[in-house]
Amino acid sequence: MPSLRALLRKHFPDALLVLLLALLLAAPQAQAGDGAAAAPADAVAQVARGRYLARIANCAACHTAPGGAPFAGGVVLRTGLGTIPSTNITPDADTGIGAYSLAEFDRALRQGVARGGKRLYPAMPYPSYARMTAEDVAALYAYLRAEVRPVRQRQPAPQLRWPFGMRSLLVVWNLFFLEAPADRASPRAAVAGGDAQWRRGAYLVQAVGHCGACHTPRGLLHAEQGSDERSQSFLAGASVEGWSAGNLRGDKLSGLGGWSREEVAEYLRTGRNIHATSFGPMSGVIAASTQHMTPQDLDAMAAYLKSLPGVRGESAPFRYDPATAQALLQGRFDAPGARLYGQYCMPCHGAGGKGFARVFPPLAGNPAVLDPDPSSLVNLLLGGAVTAAVDTAATDYHMPGYGWALNDQELADVLGFVRGGWGNRAAPVRDSEVAARRAALGIRLEAEASR
User: Fold this and answer.
1) Which mean pLDDT values do the consecutive 10-residue runs of the chain (451 residues) have?
2) Quick one: signal sequence residues (predicted)?
3) What is the DSSP code (8-state) at residue 196?
4) Where are the domains of the chain?
């Protein structure tokens, strides 16, 4: 009888024989490899989820200093009580979280108690993170330990007014303002009502995204005045480091009442829609965080935000008035601020105040223009701004600041013209408000002598 080798050579070409032998030899290895990878597959998925959570929670914004190592801390957080440098959350054993167990990390994140029992100041939004699930906390811990490079970096001590620097006072503060972690028995911590999408949006807004930390006003003890939709103060707008964090409720003029759900999601993804363009701190949030959210999570956030009723009595939608545009087009610049608007603003925003869709924002009916607090607009005209750097746009756009060229009264006149034109009915801006922000920002008027 011919040998097996001879039979195979007779009936199979050499190339096919080699391929057949390779497949036969590889089959057991592939099976063994699949079995070995089954266990770490869950760990890989957990780290990936933690990476996503760290991004949409925008952890880097507070824990990565400009030019510094990722998550090594050192960002100076300015509060009404003083300054607090952010902590190092890299897995360095001495100065970061390298020595933290998962339980210790969970306690710090959701209860504001660091390893060793040190109380954290609520500039770290642990009252919001208290609503995160234990599974998401574990995923975040896994990511920080697995993929973040350890950096040895100690932070300077906080500088707070007496007696607010006494960490022991936070025991009492937490009794009043901190909810139990979401996986423990606490009726306040549970998100009730709504469908699955609404509940997901509520979780993202209230917990992971901690939107209330900026957009909810704070009381005398610097706690947010509301933590969910049951409070009329929740997301009703607040002042943060000299900026007005806008009203995210359903008010028709200064809130999101005039935006569709799709437009809310578009703004969070791109920093632009037909109503507004991001600027100031929000551009950073969009660039680093919300643009990276999944379409499903963006839609869930938008659905939840659109469910919040207005609180400012703005039930009638914005109604455009063409009188301002007609006056400008006819060369009538007699109104205070009109001439300066024509010189500095009209080339981009137009005589009609409608801008250029998704590039130069409209001024007519823009919630930021209609905000009762004009501080963000004052900052914008003094120092300029940049739109969010997002993957969906070819470039980010810079608006120049005019604090160097226009004095306080001139800037106030321009803002008054904008806030009162095209059907806008916002209050004018005082020159003293401009002067206060100029001093805070350190912007000097350089062009007075040359005009």
Assistant:
1) 42 40 34 39 94 97 95 91 94 97 97 95 95 97 97 93 90 93 55 83 97 96 94 97 96 98 98 95 96 98 98 96 98 96 97 92 97 97 95 88 97 98 97 97 78 54
2) 1-32
3) H
4) 40-154, 323-450
Long-range contacts of the stretch 214-218 (C-beta < 8 A, 24+): 214/238, 214/240, 214/245, 214/281, 215/245, 215/246, 215/247, 215/248
Angle ∠(365,368,370) on CA atoms, nearest 5: 55
Q: Kindly compute the dihedral angle of the four CA atoms of residues 366, 227, 292, 124, in this order, to the nearest 10 degrees.
A: 110
Mode of pairing for the β-strands spanning 238-240 and 243-245: antiparallel
Residue found by looking up tokens 């003083």 in the block: 82
Cβ atoms of 194 and 119 closer than 8 Å: no
Write the burial class of residue 47 (CB in 10 Å: 0-12 exposed, 13-18 middle, 19+ buried): buried
8-state DSSP, 338: H
Q: How many helical (H) and strand (E) elements, i.e. helices and strands, does the chain have? A: 19, 7
> How many residues are listed for the chain in this entry?
451
Specify the pairing of strand 385-386 against strand 398-399.
antiparallel
Q: How many Å is the Cα radius of gyration of the chain?
A: 28
Q: Name the phi and psi angles at 34, rounded to 5.
A: -60, -40
Tokens describing residue 384: 């300029």
Only one residue has tokens 């100065």, namely: 95
Provide φ and ψ at 134, rounded to 5°: -60, -35
C-alpha span between 242 and 232 (Å, rounded): 23
Which class does domain 323-450 fall in? Answer: mainly alpha
CATH of 40-154, one of 1.10.1760, 1.10.260, 1.10.10, 1.10.760: 1.10.760
Q: Do domains 40-154 and 323-450 have the same CATH topology?
A: yes
**C-alpha–C-alpha distance, residues 91 and 82, integer Å:** 28
Render 157-180 in DSSP notation, one character per residue: PPEE-TTTT-TTHHHHHHHHH-PP
Bond prior to 163 in cis (omega within 30° of 0): yes
Whole-prediction pTM value?
Answer: 0.87
